[in-house]
Amino acid sequence: MPESTFIHPLFGEIRFETVTPEWKRGDKIVFLSGFDSSEVESLITPQLANIPGASKGKLKVHKRAQAQLLKAFVLIENRGLLHHVKTCAGTLNARLRKPTSGALSKLPSNHAFGIAIDLNEDDPGFGDSVAPLAATFESMGFTWGKAFNDPMHFEVNRFLSQDEVDTFAGQ
Prior knowledge:
about 170 residues; 4-stranded antiparallel sheet; 3 helices
């Protein structure tokens, strides 16, 4: 199986291998070192309980990102924006990236780390309908995938401390 090492901006040096004998776009991966998969835990996100694809709101999310994801959805609900969330294509998926260009990437997707979420995957604009949510996610330490032609995608670009998350308590 192909093996590779790279430096992840949040986790440091990561070593992994694919599950098939050659590099393949979006292939499943297995972490060999540098990332502890047991730190990805179940999280109940009440706002997603009735959203198709969200497993009744139960998502697998890295424990260091859980508070900021929960707070993002509380803010989205409080701001009257939850109606923009039609479907959820999930969070955890241990695989290589799948660039929207169709090209092969030899890097793990941030879904493999439990720090990314896809919303409204089946929308005609490939998730453009989540644009009203972008500012809220960005305020909670996420990058919006529109920057790399994947608008349904939000991923953690920095972990927020509990104090930083709590700063948004009144919003």
